[in-house]
C-alpha cells in the first residue's frame, strides 16, 4: 500500500535534505529518498557534497596543509620539528570520520524534524489522484505518493569520451579522494575548482603535479587580477599549469598513464603519470529517474527544465541544485531547496543568482561574488576599483600568510558594490561580508564606514572599499 506524504524529496544532498527539513518545519509531512551508502551498506545521506565532494576534499586540504606547514613553515615560528612523516591511513581515516559525522548529522536532523527517510533508488511511477507516485527500490520496495515532489538528484563527474573512470588510474573526484598512496607523478585534466583543490592536496604530500587546461586563460571566469595572482602563487608552490592545450588520445598501462597534448603554440608534448584526475565538468543525474515515464521535460544536456521558481514542466514537480540550470554549487542548491519548500507553504522567497558566492579552497583561497572587471568593461558599465594587499595587513603578517588582495568594484556614479574578488587567507569566510552588502545593494562607502576589529583580515575589505575612493589608510 502506498505511503502518502505532502512532499517527497528525491535526493539527500545539500538541495534535497535542506528542502525536506524546511518543508517539515513549515508543517508538511515529508519523505526524503536517497541511495548513497557507506562501505557496509548503511545510509550515507549528503550526496556528492558530503560523500565525495565538498566535505572530504576540505578535510584532505586541511590535513595536507598541516603536513606542509610542519615540513616547511613551522621553523619560522620557532617551532622545530624533526622526522615529519605521513600516515596515509590516518590521513584518509580522518577524512572518512568527518564524512560519517556529516552523514550521521543529516540523519539526526531528519529525525529531529520528523522527516521520514527511505534508503534506496527513487523513480517516478505515474500521475495519480493524490499527486505523483514515486517508487523506491532498496532493501525494501516502497511506493510513495505526494502532491509535490522535489527532485534533487545532483550531478556526476563527466568522463572523457572513450575513457571511463576506473578510480584506480583514471580518477574522478571520488577516486582522487581515496588514493592509498601518494603518486610520484600526477596529471590533472581541468584547472577548475576540483582540479586545483585535489591537485593541491597531492602536491603538498609530495606528488609532482601537472595540470592541463583547455581554456586559453587560467580560471577564465575569474577576475583577471585575481586569476593572475593565484597562478603566480600556485606556480611558486610547485604546481605546473598549462593552459590552451588540446589533449590527444590517452593511453594507460598497468603502471602509468600517458597524456599527449598540443600546447597553445601548436607544439606537441606528453605527460607521463602514475595517476590521472579528470575534472572537466559534471553531468546531471537524471538517468533512472523515470522522467520519460511521466513526460518530465529535460533539455538537450539532460538537465531538468525549470522556470525561475524551480517549477518543472509538470504541476507539482520541482527540481533544484545541480540537476537544473545555474551554477553547480552546494549553497545554491540549498537556497533553491529552501525557496521551493517555502513556495509550497504559500510564501514568496527568492534566490538571487547575482549574489551567489564562489570559492576555490586552495592556498591561497580564491573567492568572489558579483561581476568581474572584464564583465563590467564588456557591458560598458562605468565603475571604480579599489584593491588592498594582504601584505599590508597586520593580521596576515602575524599569520605568516600575506599572499593576495581584496578588490572591490563599485558603480562610478552610485558607488553600489558590483563585485568583490579576494585571493588570500580565509577568503571563503571574508566573502560573506561582500555578499551581505551586495544583497542590500550597499555601497563601497558602507563597507568603508563599518568599524572592523583590529587586527583582522577583514580590515583588508574595509581598506579595499576605501581605495575605491582613493583613500586607503594603510597602503
Automatic annotation (TrEMBL):
Gene3D superfamilies: 3.30.390.30, FAD/NAD(P)-binding domain (3.50.50.60). The keyword Repressor does not apply. Its main location: cytoplasm. Signal peptide: none annotated. One of its GO terms (molecular function) is dihydrolipoyl dehydrogenase (NADH) activity. Pfam families: Pyr_redox_2 (PF07992), Pyr_redox_dim (PF02852). Residues 5-337 form the FAD/NAD(P)-binding domain. Binds 1 FAD per subunit. It is found in: Cytoplasm. The keyword Cytoplasm applies. Keywords: Cytoplasm, FAD, Flavoprotein, NAD, Oxidoreductase, Redox-active center. InterPro entries: Class-I_Pyr_Nuc-Dis_Oxidored, FAD/NAD-bd_sf, FAD/NAD-binding_dom, FAD/NAD-linked_Rdtase_dimer_sf, Lipoamide_DH, Pyr_nuc-diS_OxRdtase, Pyr_nucl-diS_OxRdtase_dimer. Its cofactor is FAD. Its EC number is 1.8.1.4. It catalyses: N(6)-[(R)-dihydrolipoyl]-L-lysyl-[protein] + NAD(+) = N(6)-[(R)-lipoyl]-L-lysyl-[protein] + NADH + H(+). Residues 356-465 form the Pyridine nucleotide-disulphide oxidoreductase dimerisation domain. Belongs to the class-I pyridine nucleotide-disulfide oxidoreductase family. The active site is a redox-active disulfide bond. This is Dihydrolipoyl dehydrogenase. It comes from Alcaligenes endophyticus.
Amino acid at each position: 500500500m502506498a505511503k502518502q506524504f505532502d512532499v517527497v524529496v528525491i535526493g539527500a544532498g545539500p538541495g534535497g535534505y535542506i528542502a525536506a527539513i524546511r518543508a517539515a518545519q513549515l508543517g508538511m509531512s515529508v519523505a526524503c529518498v536517497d541511495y548513497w551508502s557507506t562501505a557496509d551498506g548503511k545510509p550515507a545521506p549528503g550526496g556528492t557534497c558530503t560523500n565525495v565532494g565538498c566535505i572530504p576534499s576540505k578535510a584532505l586540504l586541511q590535513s595536507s596543509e598541516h603536513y606542509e606547514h610542519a615540513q616547511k613553515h613551522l621553523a619560522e615560528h620557532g617551532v622545530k620539528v624533526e622526522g615529519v612523516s605521513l600516515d596515509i591511513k590516518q590521513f584518509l581515516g580522518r577524512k572518512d570520520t568527518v564524512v560519517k559525522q556529516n552523514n550521521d548529522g543529516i540523519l539526526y536532523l531528519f529525525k529531529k524534524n520528523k522527516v521520514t527517510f527511505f534508503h534506496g533508488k527513487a523513480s517516478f511511477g505515474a500521475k495519480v489522484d493524490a499527486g505523483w507516485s514515486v517508487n523506491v527500490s532498496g532493501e525494501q520496495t516502497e511506493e510513495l505518493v505526494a502532491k509535490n515532489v522535489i527532485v534533487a538528484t545532483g550531478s556526476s563527474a563527466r568522463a572523457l569520451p572513450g575513457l571511463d573512470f576506473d578510480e584506480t588510474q583514471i580518477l574522478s573526484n571520488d577516486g582522487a579522494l581515496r588514493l592509498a598512496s601518494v603518486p610520484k607523478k600526477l596529471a590533472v585534466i581541468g584547472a577548475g575548482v576540483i582540479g586545483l583543490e585535489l591537485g593541491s592536496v597531492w602536491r603538498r604530500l609530495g606528488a609532482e603535479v601537472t595540470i592541463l587546461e583547455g581554456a586559453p586563460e587560467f580560471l577564465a571566469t575569474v577576475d583577471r587580477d585575481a586569476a593572475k595572482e593565484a597562478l603566480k602563487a600556485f606556480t611558486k608552490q610547485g604546481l605546473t599549469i598549462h593552459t590552451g592545450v588540446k589533449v590527444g588520445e590517452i593511453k594507460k598501462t598497468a603502471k602509468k598513464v600517458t597524456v599527449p597534448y598540443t600546447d597553445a603554440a601548436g607544439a606537441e608534448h606528453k605527460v607521463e603519470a602514475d595517476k590521472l584526475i579528470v575534472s572537466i565538468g559534471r553531468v546531471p543525474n537524471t538517468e533512472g529517474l523515470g522522467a520519460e515515464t511521466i513526460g518530465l521535460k529535460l533539455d538537450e544536456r539532460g538537465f531538468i527544465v525549470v522556470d525561475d521558481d524551480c517549477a518543472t514542466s509538470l504541476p507539482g514537480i520541482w527540481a533544484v541544485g545541480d540537476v537544473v540550470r545555474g551554477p553547480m554549487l552546494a549553497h545554491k542548491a540549498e537556497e533553491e531547496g529552501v525557496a521551493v519548500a517555502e513556495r509550497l507553504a504559500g510564501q514568496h522567497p527568492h534566490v538571487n543568482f547575482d549574489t551567489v558566492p564562489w570559492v576555490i579552497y586552495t592556498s591561497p583561497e580564491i573567492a568572489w561574488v558579483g561581476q568581474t572587471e572584464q564583465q563590467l568593461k564588456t557591458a560598458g558599465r562605468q565603475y571604480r576599483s579599489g584593491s588592498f594587499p594582504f601584505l599590508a595587513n597586520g593580521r596576515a603578517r602575524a599569520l605568516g600568510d600575506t599572499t593576495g588582495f581584496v578588490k572591490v568594484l563599485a558603480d562610478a556614479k552610485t558607488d553600489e558594490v558590483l563585485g568583490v574578488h579576494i585571493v588570500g587567507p580565509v577568503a571563503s569566510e571574508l566573502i560573506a561580508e561582500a555578499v551581505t552588502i551586495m544583497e542590500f545593494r550597499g555601497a563601497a562607502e558602507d563597507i568603508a564606514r563599518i568599524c572592523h576589529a583590529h587586527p583582522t583580515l577583514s580590515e583588508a575589505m574595509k581598506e579595499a572599499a576605501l581605495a575605491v575612493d582613493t583613500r586607503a589608510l594603510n597602503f
